[in-house]
Design goal:
Blueprint lengths: L1 E2 L2 E2 L6 E6 L9 H11 L3 E2 L5 E3 L7 E6 L21 H17 L4 E3 L6 E2 L14 H4 L3
Parallel strand pairs: 3-6, 6-7
Antiparallel strand pairs: 1-2, 1-8, 4-5
Length: 139
């Protein structure tokens, strides 16, 4: 990942997380999301089966704050980001997720908040997932 032409973060094997925070996010979402991410068995074991979690595979996380995930294009031609959290709130929530992952033993490298980032990624495998923290919280 580069900012203004300078490499600021990189990882080897692991996960690239594009993380957005919504203004309607609830308490408990961050911990449940971190638990889910750290425990997903999506890395291959010695037999080529997706059977290993991030820590089992020795993977890292590149966590990229990305408010544009909340872009709503249902109407008109210009995306609306009305559902995105305010920048100060979003920063706290994204940092809380990074910290919650680290508490679970996951090495986390952070993107630059509110910066224009150039992100290169080699998607080595068939897995791309969308996780919504609000859908993971038990009521």
């Amino acid at each position: 990942m580069r900012v203004q032409g300078e490499t600021i973060q990189e990882i080897g094997g692991g996960l690239v997380l594009l993380v957005g925070a919504g203004k309607d996010d609830r308490e408990g979402e961050v911990d449940r999301l971190a638990e889910k991410i750290a425990g997903l068995r999506i890395f291959e074991d010695g037999d080529g089966k997706m059977n290993l979690a991030l820590g089992d595979a020795g993977g890292e996380v590149l966590l990229i704050p990305n408010f544009t995930l909340y872009g709503d294009v249902r109407r008109g031609r210009r995306p609306s980001w009305d559902s995105a959290a305010a920048p100060d709130v979003a920063f706290e929530r994204v940092e809380a997720l990074a910290s919650a992952l680290e508490e679970r033993g996951v090495p986390v490298r952070r993107g630059a908040f509110r910066e224009h980032m150039e992100v290169e990624l080699l998607n080595d495998g068939p897995v791309t997932l969308v996780l919504d923290g609000s859908e993971l919280v038990r009521s």
